[in-house]
């Protein structure tokens, strides 16, 4: 049976049983997005192969795949499968710091992605190695960080934790305002 492994947002590996050999024929491989059969692509595959990686695919797309053994010895029925690529794992592309006061600031980020389960906001003073972590639900794109020291530079890192388990991060620097006496 034809089946897919190593599925990513833009590729997957097809494997199938050894039906042909180099001498007895080749395979025609056809694949297209299930929603757009007209965008079918076809390629010839050596009869010696039992696996192949398809790449340059669209993310979050279901593909109809057919492997047709072209044998000059036996008739083999076509093998077919459906494979859905994963959502694209993009890291947060913007981290914005706003509403900065002596003891707090707001952190917001973009884009909002449905494939993110949660965000982790790590922050700590520079220089220094103390880090605090805030967990933020995947449906939110901002949080307020509080109880900070005035007139201090913080390193803020937003990590998107994807439903697939992968993580991507982006950092920014934030400065708190001077305290009351500095006015």
UniProtKB/TrEMBL annotation:
PROSITE patterns reported in the protein's UniProt record: FN3
Gene3D superfamilies xref list: Immunoglobulins (2.60.40.10)
Pfam family, any one: fn3
GO terms under cellular component: extracellular region
Cell location: Secreted, Extracellular space
InterPro entries: ECM_Regulatory_Proteins, FN3_dom, FN3_sf, Ig-like_fold
Keywords, alphabetical: Glycoprotein, Repeat, Secreted, Signal
Domain Fibronectin type-III: 1-89, 91-179
CDD domains the record matches: FN3
PANTHER family documented for this protein: RECEPTOR-TYPE TYROSINE-PROTEIN PHOSPHATASE ETA-LIKE, TENASCIN
Protein name in the entry: VWA1 protein
Natural source organism: Sitta europaea (Eurasian nuthatch)
